[in-house]
Each structure stands twice: as structure tokens, then as C-alpha cells.
Design brief:
Oligomer: single chain
Largest sheet: 4 strands, mixed
Number of helices: 22
Helix content: 40-55%
Distance between the termini: 89 Å
Radius of gyration: 25 Å
């Protein structure tokens, strides 16, 4: 049956042409957004806007944002499009400080979405929560990461680092390289399960350890999983439409069972342990974390306000599991990523490795061989190595915020509309030659106290900044440092024939990861 002409095929072509014309006109209208408002912007080239390389998984997310940062050279900010959605990329450190700190009450939430109905652990955790509920939860979890708490878990982390030494003792003599991303992934899993769940996961000794298997599933880099993660953080509308999940049903079920089995056992047997799970149990039973024994950094709670705020977030059911789940995921992955990149750079720069090793021996000798929290903080050069690695490969390569109301950019008559995503490209900042000369070079001296003072503090943001800075920052650094100390004390790390030079980042990985891993050699140091 024909409609317009006497030919069905001609009618079909007209319908297709009409649809294409409507799509063209729709995106032409959408892509006029920044020009109409007087903002500098990157010209979109197709219906993907400026996101084709990310959507087609041709380049890593962080590197693509770095490319857009470079296109905005000389400008404090620049507009771009994710499909038809206008977004703003910040380049100026003062403007970044304003968004993250000074105007935090405006730029409160992240541009992220996960379905509460299908992914309760993904929506109820500290990272994904929004609004007043986030603020209340953050205030309750902050005491879990004070100096006093870090000192308490220091010994637990050291036990896990000793397992790394044992593992390398058994495998380093074999005539094959060791994949350090997997090595540090196992170490990170053991650290987090010990400090968060109070469970010995034995990932380094058991190749079939359940926690390690599920950890791999959470961060797998398949085409669909990559699109799922990207959609949650960049295209939340697509995530909402397709019910995408941060945690799969299988992973949620596993973490839920592990959490409640351990909680029930502790409560039945009155087991007390200095770890993250014990603090969650206190929140479940009392609504607060007990004051610390030494009287320092104790939580001060206004009883009246707390009663009101409790309605925002209840410490029960999946709300509790979600905190352990995100601590597990973010914790082991951050340790794995940072640790493996550190080992790579130490292998490629033996002079840096030797200097770090000498400092480790010197500090431990002064501490009579004891690896205390204070000893960790004395290892300043090792901290410089970690900082430089995080400059080159930040765990999260992009920060994002969304204004909750229209906001006039300071010194202009330009208005950023409510709900417009704002992005801070860390790799762009960290690799800017005007901030870090010869940025491709690995140089820990960039983070000497003298050199740090010369730079704007908001040109280095591997843990974010402001009220939403990474709550586990000190814990993560402590875990990575402890692992590096255990390795460098006993082994010399070096590249092998299979070591990639340079590293090529996997475009399917939301958290920076090299294609093909990082195989290295470990040789026992003869004392």
C-alpha cells in the first residue's frame, strides 16, 4: 500500500529521508546551545557530539578528556557535547577550586546514575549518593578514616604485605615474568577483605579465591561492561533507560552474603575487631561510631539534628552492605592500579628504585625494624614516587559535578544552567606542559616540598578536593606504601622482554589500565 507516491519503495525512501532530516535538525538545534550563550566550545562532528572516540571505545576516557582539555588551550573553560547534551570542561585551577570547594553548595552532586530498583548496592553507597543523604552518610563514615583508625589497621595491612613477599619467594625464581596488575590486585583484595570484612580472602595463595574472582567481574573490560560504566557516569539517561548496574546481581548476592555472614557471626560471638566492618556494626546498632579511645578526633554529634538527619539515610539492610561493597571495589582496584603503575616506573627507572629502597632501609633501621604508621610517614621519597605515579595515572581520570541552580561564572555575564554537567579532566591538568614541564617524564622530584609550593594546589587532584575528596585517601596510600616496602626490601624489580614500552591504555577500561597488563621480573636481593 502506497501513501505519497505510487511506489512503495519510493514512499519508504521518503520516510527514511524525513526521519534523517528530523534527526539532522534535532542535533543542529542541540549543537547550537553553547554558541547561542556565548561560550567557547569544541565543534561537534556527528551525532555523537564530541564523544565518538569514547562511545566507539577507540580511546581511554581520561585521554579523550585530556585531548579536549588541549583543544581549549588559553581558555578557562570550554563547552562540548555528549551526544546532544551540552557539558562544560574546566581548565582554570581557580575555577576548579571554586567548583570543588568555594561553591560546593551549588556544585553538590556528581553526574552519575544507577537504578535503585535493580542495583541497590550501586545507588546507596557513599560514592553514588546525592544531596543531603550523602552529607549525612559522609559525616558518619568520616571517623572510620581518622589517624587513630589508620594506626589500628596498619598491622592488618602489614600482614597482607608479608603475603606478597611469600608469594614472590615462591614464584620469582621461575623463568617467567610476573603480571604485576594481577599481583597487586590480589594484594589489594586481601587488604580490603581483611580491613573491611574481617575475612582472610587468601587471594595470593588461592588462585580460586572467591573475592578475587568477583573483584575481576566488577571491573571486567568487556565491550558491554565498558559501555555500562561509561553510561552511568557520562550518559545517565541511557543508563536509566537500560537499567544499567554498578554491581551485577551475582556480585551483589555474593557481597551481601559475605557481609551478613560475618556480621551475624561477630554479633553472636561478641567478636570485636579494629576494622571498617566493626564501625558499620556500630552504625547499625547505635547510629554512630564510638569515640576513639585516645580522645582525639572523636565524633561530636548534635543529638537533635542527628535525629532529623537519620530520616535521610538508615543504617540497615543494603544501605550497610553498599558501604562495604564500594569500599571493597574502590579500595582493591585503587591499590591494584596505583601499585602496578608504581612497580612499572620503578622497573624502568632503577636509580629511583635504589633511592626508594635506601630510604626504606634507613627509616626501618631508625625504627628498629618496626613498620609503624609513623615510619610510613617518614618515607618522604617513596611518597614522592607515589605522587608522581598518580600524576601520570590518576585512579579516576575525570571529576564531575552538576550545579543545582543556574550559576553565573565569576567575572562574566555567562550563565551555566542548572543540571549542566561540569567536568574536570585530571589527565589534562596533570599532563599540561605549562604546569609540569616535560610531562611525559617520570620525575618524583616534582613532588619535593619545594616544588609543590611553586604550583597551584588545584593542578594536582588524584583524590579530588573539597568536601567530596576521596575519604579513603590515607588508607589507600598507606596500603600501597606498605606493599611497596615489602617488595623493595626483598626484591629488585626490572623490565623483561614482554614489558610494554610505552604503556598503551585500554580504551574499554573506565579506571586506567594498560592493554596486556604489566609483566615484570623480580629478583631476590641477596643480603
Amino acid at each position: 500500500m502506497t501513501i505519497v507516491t505510487n511506489s512503495m519503495s519510493t514512499d519508504l525512501l521518503l520516510v527514511i529521508f524525513g526521519l534523517l532530516l528530523l534527526i539532522y535538525l534535532y542535533f543542529k538545534y542541540k549543537f547550537s546551545y553553547w554558541k547561542k550563550r556565548g561560550f567557547p566550545f569544541i565543534q561537534p562532528t556527528n551525532i555523537f557530539g564530541n564523544f565518538k572516540e569514547i562511545i566507539l571505545q577507540q580511546t581511554a576516557v581520561g585521554q579523550h578528556f585530556q585531548h579536549m582539555y588541549n583543544l581549549g588551550k588559553g581558555k578557562p573553560y570550554i563547552g562540548f557535547y555528549a551526544f546532544g547534551r551540552p557539558s562544560l570542561l574546566l581548565r582554570d585551577p581557580d575555577l576548579i577550586k571554586l567548583v570543588l570547594v568555594k561553591e560546593f553548595n551549588v556544585f553538590y552532586d556528581r553526574h552519575v546514575y544507577s537504578s535503585k530498583g535493580t542495583d541497590p548496592l550501586g545507588t546507596s553507597n557513599l560514592f553514588m549518593l546525592k544531596g543531603p543523604a550523602w552529607k549525612y552518610l559522609r559525616s558518619k563514615l568520616n571517623p572510620a578514616f581518622t589517624t587513630f583508625r589508620m594506626k589500628q589497621v596498619c598491622s592488618l595491612i602489614e600482614i597482607c604485605s608479608n603475603h606478597v613477599t611469600d608469594y614472590l619467594e615462591k614464584t620469582s625464581h621461575l623463568d617467567k615474568p610476573i603480571e604485576v596488575r594481577e599481583l597487586m590486585g590480589k594484594y589489594g583484595t586481601d587488604v580490603i577483605t581483611s580491613c573491611a570484612f574481617g575475612i582472610e580472602s587468601n587471594s595470593l595463595s588461592d588462585p580460586n579465591a572467591e573475592f578475587r574472582q568477583f573483584g575481576r567481574k566488577i571491573i571486567e573490560t568487556s565491550v558491554f561492561r565498558s559501555f555500562e560504566f561509561m553510561s552511568m557516569f557520562v550518559l545517565p539517561e541511557a543508563s536509566k533507560f537500560m537499567n544499567m548496574k554498578f554491581f551485577s546481581t551475582e556480585t551483589s548476592d555474593f557481597l551481601r552474603k559475605a557481609f551478613w555472614d560475618t556480621v551475624n557471626q561477630r554479633e553472636e560471638k561478641n567478636i570485636q575487631r579494629d576494622d571498617f566492618l566493626q564501625l558499620l556494626i556500630q552504625l547499625k546498632n547505635k547510629g554512630r561510631v564510638d569515640e576513639e579511645k585516645n580522645g582525639l578526633e572523636a565524633e561530636k554529634v548534635n543529638a537533635d539534628n542527628d535525629t532529623v538527619d537519620q530520616k535521610l539515610f538508615k543504617f540497615e539492610g543494603d544501605n550497610l552492605v553498599a558501604q562495604a561493597a564500594i569500599f571493597f571495589t574502590a579500595g582493591f582496584e585503587a591499590i591494584a592500579t596505583n601499585g602496578s603503575f608504581i612497580l612499572y616506573h620503578l622497573a624502568m627507572h632503577p636509580e629511583v628504585q635504589e633511592k626508594a629502597r635506601a630510604e626504606i632501609h634507613e627509616v626501618l633501621e631508625s625504627e628498629k625494624g618496626k613498620l609503624t604508621y609513623e615510619a610510613l610517614n617518614k618515607m618522604e621519597y617513596l611518597q614522592m614516587v607515589i605522587s608522581e605515579t598518580l600524576r601520570l595515572f590518576p585512579n579516576l581520570s575525570v571529576l564531575d559535578r552538576v550545579p543545582k541552580r543556574d550559576y553565573v561564572l565569576p567575572g562574566t555575564n555567562l550563565t551555566l544552567e542548572k543540571g549542566t554537567p561540569v567536568y574536570i579532566p585530571l589527565m589534562g591538568l596533570h599532563m599540561d606542559p605549562n604546569i609540569y614541564p616535560n610531562p611525559e617524564k617520570f620525575d618524583p622530584e616534582r613532588f619535593s616540598p619545594e616544588n609543590i609550593k611553586k604550583r597551584h594546589p588545584f593542578t594536582y587532584l588524584p583524590f579530588g578536593d573539597g568536601p567530596k575528596f576521596c575519604v579513603g585517601k590515607r588508607f589507600g596510600i598507606m596500603a600501597v606504601k606498605t606493599g611497596m616496602i615489602s617488595i623493595l626490601q626483598n626484591f629488585e624489580v626490572s623490565p623483561c622482554a614482554e614489558t610494554p614500552v610505552p604503556l598503551v591504555l585500554d580504551p574499554k577500561a573506565m579506571i586506567l589500565a594498560p592493554i596486556g597488563g604489566i609483566p615484570l621480573k623480580f629478583n631476590r636481593i641477596k643480603v
